[in-house]
Amino acid sequence: MIVIKVGGGKTIDVDAVVSDLAELWKAGKRFILVHGGAETTNEVAEALGHPPQFVTSESGYESRRTDRRTLEIFEMVYCGQLNKMWVEKLQMLGVNAVGLSGIDGRIFEGRRKDKLRVRMNGKRLVIRDDWTGTVEKVNTELIDLLLANGYLPVLTPPGSSDKGEAINVDGDRAAASLAAAVNAEALVILSNIPGLMREFPDESTTIKSIPASKVDDYMEFAQGRMKKKVMGAAEAVADGVGKVVFADGRIESPLTAAINGGGTHIEQ
Fold first, then answer.
1. Domain total for the chain?
2. Over the stretch 90-141, which tens digit does the pLDDT of each residue have?
């Protein structure tokens, strides 16, 4: 079993990912797909007159400020437009995909954060009207049922709070928790870069291999969103996932390339 996380960058070749996944699925490989959609969400939010805001935690991680209206837009794009796009493309290639969000069956479950301590425009603030959380539990019963009956699960945030509320959760870390919960042999994270680079954005400096025991030593090379991807990778291998691969989603046969050594591999 391989868990695939595909980012929401517009330069990712979705058709190449789907084609490659379909061929591998028909050859007997089994996958769970988790997708993002941040760039499309930003565009829709702007068009609806509720532009996105981003905040930085006290530990230095950037995240989306998620008030209730933002959560509604998030659900519209992730659970509607993009989730069904992935399902449709897979169905057209003969893969019986089923699209779900993390709130369905409480697949991704955690606590809603009562308040966030953040930095915004250089100021320290406490935000109370926020709908974010961290995945603390993955309920796999529904996923197992789908896989056992030949369906490919296509998952997306949001998740569910322990009270059943929809909460915005980080897709990379959710995918890492999922990979650990299903005892995946690998977690492949496809984005619009070839892997973790020593000198971003110089792609020739892509790091090929990182020992699992030394992931924290490489955090200094992570820029922006890559920080949470590296954090998720560290959590996944610590929880027993065989390896995590950061790979290029812009190329032909991106999954095959990642499985066969492309990108940055983190493993025991």
1. 1
2. 999 999 999 999 999 999 999 998 777 777 677 787 878 889 999 999 999 9
Looking at the DSSP bridge assignments, the partners of residue 134 are: 111
For residue 17, give the CATH number of its domain: 3.40.1160.10
Average pLDDT over residues 47-69: 82
CB 153 within 8 A of CB 32: yes
- How confident is the model at residue 58, as a pLDDT? 66
**What distances in angstroms separate CA 220 from CA 227, 230, 235, one per listed residue?**
9, 10, 17
Q: How many CB atoms lie within 10 A of CB 100?
A: 18
DSSP 199-256: TTT-GGGB--EEEGGGGGGGGGG--TTHHHHHHHHHHHHHTT-SEEEEEESSSSSHHH
**Token pair for residue 37?**
């959609």
Q: For the chain, percent helix, then strand, then coil, each to nearest 5?
A: 40, 30, 35
Containing domain of residue 154, as a range?
A: 2-267
28-41 burial by CB neighbour count: b if 16+ within 10 A, else e? eeebbbbbbbbbbb
Phi, psi angles (nearest 5°) of residue 130? -135, 145
